[in-house]
Amino acid sequence: GDEIFAFVKNKAKDGNFYWVFANVSASFDANGNIINYYSVRRAPNRKSISIIEEVYKILLEKEKKSGINAGVSALMDIVSSYKMTYNELIFNLQENN
Asked: Which regions of the chain are under pLDDT 50?
């Protein structure tokens, strides 16, 4: 149920792909159960897309070869290489790159 910010690759009706910068958060009922998700999307920082595309390519290769856990591990390695947290890196790419 944690909120996440991410660059998301979407597929348009015409088959082309496009990137968005998304914020996704859960909505909860009175008992604390997730009942829905709320997503706000905005234009990504175009200067960061080439970096995100390279990361995405690496993650897809890892996941195809060794499964989703390998992709998650690769993402954490990439984030660590920047000496930032995931959120710091994502916000830095969106705001400053």
From this structure: none
